[in-house]
Structure formats: structure tokens, C-alpha cells
Design brief:
The protein is of the alpha/beta class and 196 residues long. It has helices at residues 3-15, 44-57, 74-84, 123-134, 175-178, and strands at 18-24, 30-35, 65-69, 87-94, 97-100, 111-119, 138-147, 158-163, 183-185, 190-192. The protein binds zinc ion (ZN). Residues 22, 30, 169, 171, 174, 176-177, 183 line the site of zinc ion.
Amino acid sequence: MTAREKKIYSQLRKSGALMEGHFLLSSGLHSPDYVQCALSLKDPAKAAALGAELKKIWKGPRPDLILSPALGGLIIGHEVARAFGVDFMFTERDNNIMALRRGFSLPAGAKVLIVEDVFTTGRSTMEVFETVKKARAEVLGALSVINRMGGRSFYFPSASLLTLDLKVYSPDDCPLCAKGLPLVKPGSRTVVKRED
Ligand SMILES: [Zn+2]
């Protein structure tokens, strides 16, 4: 980890955004790690600082505007837009299709930088990308606070403040279950009982 990554890592740990334990993920897999980026953004001053850090790691051309997928990208996208001094817009799902709503429209040819809290599968970033293309604007690239794509990448430039290689285990082959650690469903504080 670079000095910047170490600093971001410890800030995320302190805010509770990165948790260690034994978690049941929505995929059904078990993991010793859980990421809840919203917890690192609840302090507006820290959110603004993360936005300024993301501006620093962007090496491409200056964007005309920042575009983020709701809900995860809202706060950090807004703060990156503040750092660049440009407008911020967001996409949201309309009948499950990512779209610009609320009267937002992208000027044709506008240079757009996509900002997310976490790159996980990359799906929402690609959906925002398609929205930009439909509007005949240009995607410069994408930024996120955390990258957990496991080495996969987009075919346009992207950068993240912190890359995490998060382990996942199948319930039948989980060393944490083997140790008898209680399984927690994140966000619920409840301990999940295994039905064996
Ligand atoms: Zn387990």
C-alpha cells in the first residue's frame, strides 16, 4: 500500500466503513470483510476530503461534469464535482433501466467523469456509461473510493483511492464457520444461525 492508500484505509476502518468479522453477503457467500462506504461519508468534511483526493488521482482531461449512479455515488460524486468546480448529476433506475431523470440532461459532447463509492461488479458504472453514450456525450473515465473488482478493469481509464482484495468463502468451505465464529448479516446486527 502507498502512503495515501494507508491513510485512506485507516480512515475507512475508523469510520466503520471497513469491518472485519464473519459476514453473510447478499450473494450467500461468507466473508471476513464487509464494506459499507456510506459510513465513511457521513462526516461532510471527510466526504469533501475524499472528493479532493479523488480529483488528485485523476490523470485525464478536466471533466465538464460529474455523473454518478444513485444511491451509492451521490455523496462522493457531489464532493468530486465540488473539488473540480463543475456540475454534478446523477442517474437512477427507471423501470430497472439506468436513466437521467428530474430534468437532468447531458450537453452533446460534454466530457463526463463517472464517480462511484465502490466498484464491485462494475455493472452500475457500465450502465452510467451507456446513459452517457445515448446522450452523445463523452465518458472520460471513472473514479471510486474503493475498488474491489478483483483485478478486472473497465475499457476506459479508471482510478480508485483504495484497492481491496476481499476474500469470500462458500458456506460449505468457510474457515470462519470452521472456527465457530458467529455469522453476521451486515446492517442488521443479527447473528445468523446456520441450518445444518
Ligand atoms: Zn462462514
